[in-house]
UniProtKB/TrEMBL annotation:
PANTHER family: NICOTIANAMINE SYNTHASE 3. It comes from the Eukaryota. GO terms for molecular function: nicotianamine synthase activity. It comes from Rhypophila decipiens. It holds the Pfam family NAS. Belongs to the nicotianamine synthase (NAS)-like family. Keywords: S-adenosyl-L-methionine, Transferase. This is Nicotianamine synthase 2. Coiled coil: none annotated. The keyword S-adenosyl-L-methionine applies. The keyword ATP-binding does not apply.
């Protein structure tokens, strides 16, 4: 059964959404920590801005949350950061009037804090994913069935599945065929997206032989992230068969992407438009013509959490043919951009 049939039977999300590169609140503590060496000074001055009452209130909440985040010693999961980010994420994923959104994202107060606020969210997300992967692994003595049960009972697991369905339908619409090999750049310590893609593609395989040929390569520049994600896949046993791992910089010569039908770039790959564009060009140069690039981005007020990536710059348009962009209107943070490498 092809992905066309998958799209036809896809149950559209019913208020359940994946933690798509987002940190949610969670009542746990961790012994590990990432110490914050430097914190930028934030004046918190309102400035002379013409905003609606609602936009002003949201700007106040965003800047107040940022000020509280700066006071934390580290960004490991814990009561304080869970509460702060647990309030910030819904604030930045609500549906708002376009004019209100523009007033918020163009606010001088918000613009001042965006780069360091995104950096905090990035660090906190990494800590959360490492903790969650360690919980799935357990003490290393459990059988794969028990570890798999822990993975599927992860509070956002069903949301990962739904997002994988949505992205695969977009890939099918752009590529006209079911991918067999996917590379995920910036896979991080919790490779649930890759695992969900792997499982969905195996379900769509025509036979067992085709299913065994499906591969997902996880690439990350952090060796610790690769180690824990590999350990998690080992813990769940045959369910992860087809997962491969490589510690390397995105776009580096050792990452040969010519054999992959689809290449993902995580939202955290590249901290600015310029940097992300440079990495994207390197990645595309190592892909084969006709293959698809999937880039996670953000739009509207969600750009308070992740940068918005413009795929239609002159340099990128020389190499890529943009196909479609998916913007969420639920709790999912990341937009999805799909483009084809020019032949």
């Amino acid at each position: 059964m092809g992905l066309t049939k998958l799209c036809l039977r896809l149950p559209w999300p019913r208020h359940r959404t994946r933690k798509a590169s987002v940190v949610k609140s969670s009542p746990y503590d961790s012994q590990d920590s990432i110490t914050i060496a430097e914190k930028p000074q934030y004046t918190g001055q309102p400035g002379n801005e013409l905003t609606s009452e609602r936009a002003g209130a949201i700007c106040n909440k965003i800047t107040e949350t940022y000020s509280e985040l700066l006071k934390l010693a580290n960004y490991e999961p814990g009561e304080q950061i869970n509460k702060l980010l647990g309030d910030l994420v819904p604030l930045c994923t609500q549906n708002l009037d376009r004019e209100v959104v523009q007033q918020i994202v163009q606010s001088a107060r918000v613009q001042e804090i965006l780069p360091p606020l995104r950096d905090i969210c990035s660090q906190a997300e990494s800590c959360f994913e490492s903790y969650s992967a360690a919980k799935i692994i357990g003490d290393g003595k459990d059988d794969p069935k028990t570890a798999l049960e822990r993975a599927k009972s992860f509070r956002y697991y069903s949301n990962y599945v739904e997002l994988a369905w949505l992205e695969l339908c977009g890939i099918q619409a752009a590529g006209r065929e079911t991918p067999k090999r996917i590379a995920f750049i910036g896979s991080g310590p919790l490779p649930l997206t890759s695992l969900c893609l792997l499982q969905e593609l195996k379900k769509e395989a025509d036979n067992e032989s085709d299913a065994q040929g499906i591969k997902v390569l996880n690439v990350d520049c952090d060796q610790a992230a690769i180690d824990i994600s590999r350990a998690m896949c080992h813990a769940v046993g045959d369910w992860s068969k087809g997962m491969e791992f490589l510690c390397a910089e995105a776009g580096s010569p050792e990452v040969d992407l010519t054999e992959y039908d689809v290449v993902y770039m995580a939202a955290l790959v590249g901290v600015s438009q310029e940097k992300k564009e440079e990495i994207t060009l390197k990645v595309v140069n190592s892909m084969r013509p006709g293959s698809l690039l999937v880039v996670r981005s953000a739009a509207g007020i969600r750009t308070c959490l992740y940068i918005e990536f413009d795929i239609a710059t002159d340099r990128l348009l020389e190499k890529l043919e943009p196909c479609l962009t998916l913007h969420p209107h639920n709790e999912v943070v990341n937009s999805v951009i799909i483009a084809r490498v020019k032949i």
